[in-house]
Design the sequence.
């Protein structure tokens, strides 16, 4: 059995930061409890009925005291608010250059795939000292990807992409939990995160069933599913060229301009009628029900890869 401990280990950069905030808040509470309750106890004993304490000269108020106990908590409160807000901002926004892992949750398991193609179930292997970003979605109900040792928890929602990132700082194995009640076997939807030395991670990536990189698999799907028939310059059909589309500002027929992020690309594939590119007709069929979440993520990885450097390795 694990040693008893009050706190899970701190195994990521944000773990330390979250704990500092938590300890800071606790210290502040203890301070205010002391400032309010110690005098209450003191006065109720000192001025209890029948005590001989001096009751002449009752105090008639003090501006200094009143403004002090208004302003001091205000400043402390705003200080903690800013601290929390900055930390939240930091935890919610993945850094630019990170390892990418795709996560599809379903009742009751986690399916993960690394950029290089390696797949895992209920286990996530990551190298020490790198930033890792998970792009997550669910095939059915809402789940939540929770790694207590990293102090990260994020809902995984059907129909949407959410992200979670962390920077492991300690080798070892850590619990992975689903933290959103998701049906009968919710409590069994657990796994582990294994933080490895970078060399060991590289080796692990290339052993066992490695598969192809997700961008290359995405390119294959792009052909097989007939996307290329319309999107790769067919003279008969007018469809937007998708090279360079990722991250671009796309004008829509409705007059809006949206950024072509993962969510936009996903919606374009499943709900093509929702946002129609300006200047094109709404002739793209919906692939809803004909394509899995994992496949959509691969196609998106492919579309990202053809952004700058042309089609991913022929
Ligand atoms: C029948 C032809 C056709 C097929 C097949 C097709 N598309 Fe499209 N696609 C279009 C047209 C036309 C548009 C522009 C109108 C719109 O936004 O719906 C479009 C728009 C898009 C957009 C938005 C592009 C932008 O610039 O905003 C994406 C992304 C996309 N398609 C991806 C795909 C993928 C991935 C597949 C295969 C799973 C696919 N398409 C299959 C015709 C097609
Ligand atoms: Cu779950």
Sequence:
């Amino acid at each position: 059995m694990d040693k008893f401990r009050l706190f899970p280990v701190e195994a990521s950069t944000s773990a330390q930061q979250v704990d500092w905030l938590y300890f800071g808040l606790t210290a502040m509470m203890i301070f205010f409890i002391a400032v309010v309750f110690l005098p209450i106890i003191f006065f109720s004993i000192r001025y209890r009925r029948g005590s001989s304490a001096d009751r002449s000269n009752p105090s008639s108020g003090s501006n200094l005291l009143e403004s002090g106990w208004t302003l001091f908590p205000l400043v402390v409160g705003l200080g903690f608010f800013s601290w929390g807000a900055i930390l939240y901002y930091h935890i919610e926004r993945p850094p630019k250059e990170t390892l990418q892992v795709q996560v599809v949750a379903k009742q009751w398991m986690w399916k993960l795939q690394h950029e290089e193609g390696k797949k895992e179930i209920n286990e996530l292997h990551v190298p020490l000292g790198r930033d890792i970003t998970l792009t997550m979605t669910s095939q059915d109900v809402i789940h939540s990807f929770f790694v207590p040792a990293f102090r990260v928890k994020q809902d995984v929602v059907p129909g949407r992409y959410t992200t979670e990132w962390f920077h492991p700082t300690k080798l070892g194995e850590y619990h992975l939990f689903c933290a959103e009640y998701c049906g009968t076997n919710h409590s069994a939807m657990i796994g582990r995160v294994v933080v490895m030395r970078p060399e060991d991670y590289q080796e692990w990536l290339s052993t066992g069933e490695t598969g192809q990189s997700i961008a290359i698999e995405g390119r294959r799907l792009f052909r097989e599913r007939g996307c290329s028939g319309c999107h790769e310059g067919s003279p008969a059909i007018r469809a937007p060229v998708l090279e360079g589309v990722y991250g671009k500002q796309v004008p829509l027929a409705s007059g809006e301009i949206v950024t072509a992020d993962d969510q936009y690309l996903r919606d374009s594939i499943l709900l093509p009628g929702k946002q129609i590119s300006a200047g094109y007709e709404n002739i793209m069929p919906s692939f809803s029900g004909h394509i899995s979440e994992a496949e959509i993520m691969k196609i998106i990885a492919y579309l990202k890869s053809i952004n700058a450097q042309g089609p991913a390795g022929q």
Q: What stands out?
A: The longest strand covers residues 99-106.
